[in-house]
Write a structure and sequence with these properties.
Radius of gyration: 29 Å
Strand content: 15-25%
Shape: globular
CATH topology of the largest domain: Rossmann fold
Structural class: alpha/beta
Largest sheet: 10 strands, mixed
CATH superfamily of the largest domain: Glycogen Phosphorylase B
Helix content: 40-55%
CATH class of the largest domain: Alpha Beta
Distance between the termini: 79 Å
Amino acid sequence: MQPIRTFSVSPSLPLQLEPLRELAYNLHWDWNVEAKELFSRLDRDLWLASRQNPVYMLGQLSQTRLQEMAADDSFLAHMKRAVEQLHDYLESRTWYKKHRPNPNHDCIAYFCAEYGLTQCLPIYSGGLGVLAGDHLKSASDLGLPLVAVGLLYQEGYFSQHLNVDGMQQERYPISDFYNLPLHLVRQDDGSEARISVEYPGRMVYARIWRAQVGTVPLYLLDTNIEPNNRQDQDITDRLYGGDLELRIQQEIMLGIGGVRALETLGIKPSVYHLNEGHSAFLILERMRHLIQREGLSFPVARQVALATQIFTTHTPVSAGFDLFPPDMAMRYIGHYAAAYNLPEKEFLSLGRENTGDLNSAFSMAALALKNSSFINGVSRLHGEVSRQMFQGMWPGLPVDEVPITSVTNGVHARSVVAKSTQELYDRYLGSSWDEAPPDHHTLWSKVAAIPDDELWRNHERVRSEMVLAVREQMVKHLKERDAGPAEVYEASQILDPNVLTIGFARRFATYKRANLFLRDTARIKRIITGNGNPDRRVQFVISGKAHPKDEPGKGLIREIIQYTRREGISSQVVFVPNYDIYIARMLVAGCDVWLNTPRRPREASGTSGMKAAMNGLPNLSILDGWWDEADYIKTGWAIGSRQYFHDHEVQDTMEANALYECLEHEIIPMFYDRNPNGVPLRWVEKMKHAISLNCPRFNTARMLSDYALRAYFPASDRAAAMSQDHYQVARSLAEWKSNLMEHWYDIKILEIDIPAPDNIAVGQPVPVTAKLHLANLHPTDIQVQLYQGAIDDKGQIINGAAVPMQHQSSEGQTCTYIGEVTYNQSGLQGLCLRVLPQHPHLSSPYEPGLILWAK
């Protein structure tokens, strides 16, 4: 029956409990122990059943229960503490003010396709989303002026269930936005704030919801409204669902719709941060605005956009980027070519790695890479991989100079560290440990002073809590599957809270090799059962989802489950269905070792291991992602080395054997070697190193400060400079670039004089003089460099270093430059000369993509 009118009904709270509403609608409660305990205290079963959703919970509690709590002085005192903590938090964010005393113009807009903030808001699929959620939390912690934009998915990512055979099944529960910690954004007259976006032959509309993340607003677009047709209402139905057509529709709404939403809200960002390429269409919309509303030409508009955009790539393989066929791209976004007055070929080149390949797809990564002034991977190794992947976009540039840097990911400490462990750190390290930088040596040295037995007893307690929670999850899952009483009872007894517990939880993509530990099934069974010694047993807790279309990934889940059943070890190797934030936090806190087995270098960063380390867990991992740059000797163990094998069978066998060896000869003996008080002293020492060395380096407080100091603030300053005097700097720079492109290829290196013998000594100066014809360019337009380094077996300079030459004199268009190099190492060394552009307002000399080498 269709309603003739609808109402948004809010929970009816006694006046004394009204502060609960404020707490419920700010997601700060997700990382505030006091607030979470407060809501759990109202009704623990309902708190868990609601997926820790305080808004839904307040609407479901009986008035009798609410009145009872309103008369409970202890509860009211607890509520007062939680509210005071929220208010103190919102008013005391000082990092930004200390590092940016006169900002005026700063406003960072952060775009991502998914956000993992809390269990009850299922608009994330995995690591990218949880990283984005942690990004917002730490931006709030530091007081950064950041706003975020995403899509609000009605069905979100899928809910995972396993059939009797162990095969993954997907369900898509419908989210009730009115019972989530979300605000529907309204205009001053009370009507819904809406935006519209052009799609082929029609307009698509979206309303805007806001999730408040501490001090950071997250704006989420929702197309499930009239007057959209049924198909367009489904654009924001599912995360990463549907076909390529739906993907481009979603990404248009995210990028183009996101820019329009901020405009509708009166928000004027100075910086745009694209977290992965899904939102790259925002670049097109920004340039259109600048052309049509500011009266800029396309080159000037592009210059303004480029100078103020930041792109973070999370993908270590080219196949992971969104690619749209040229005809599809033109059908959906071809009207921007008309707005820019560009021919089709030139317009499509904005999104092509190889502009000369007229049949190549339109790449969202290429669009972002070509139009961003700061580009980064998410770990040091991923930065190297990304430079190699995209070297072709900067022809002639040595791979180590490709302008893609890295900002290693982190995790939000207060969101992932167990409650009792946080309290332990608060006692011994002080309340600011979660934001303390690595160089705060005084604070981090205090970790060593935590009593060994206290740290160990706390961990044992957390492990026991994890075992109980896993049992609850498994019993719940089996009851939903209508399993028999015997199977349900067995699930209530799984795992032993006193046994060495290894955790593995992540997306079940095949390159992550979730089944590597099963490479030798007989050997791993011997390890699990203690090799005949019941006091040295091992157990595994595993969780994760495969993409609905990833049949090989689903097969890995089925393989693990069927192996455990076949071998009768289902109580020692447990797969926990429906992996989500709640399960992840439970496992990274309660396991003893965190296992990670990707095929190097396919793991861009990985963050679950960072969360485990913050809880004191050593990592056992392939040297990939973040682990490659961690102290993997003191804080865990490396599986294998950094070798790469073309034969994956050989590689898998070698690394599985290395895993078994490490378990048998290092991990198991260290874990079970106890002092008279039952404390494994060597193990606790490794736990302390994991906390003191990894916690300060791999957290989002450090990560956000890196982004702010290296990317956000410089880009915001560029935005201010570019827009002065009606974009005069941008106009001048665009005109300079045009002139540079016109004359660059006419530059000639006329003469290079190196008056030195073929044999020189280490440290001996080698003078160089060069004459160049600048072809109507000015000496200030270029920089001339000597490029020196060792010669490899192919006769190429490797690991080169650039030494600037000085402009000495000019005669017409002929300029003389002088310079000098020395070599600090013996052997065969080389020298070359190169020319790069130079302008005070370039984000880097590589921005124009031009380089000239002497031949």
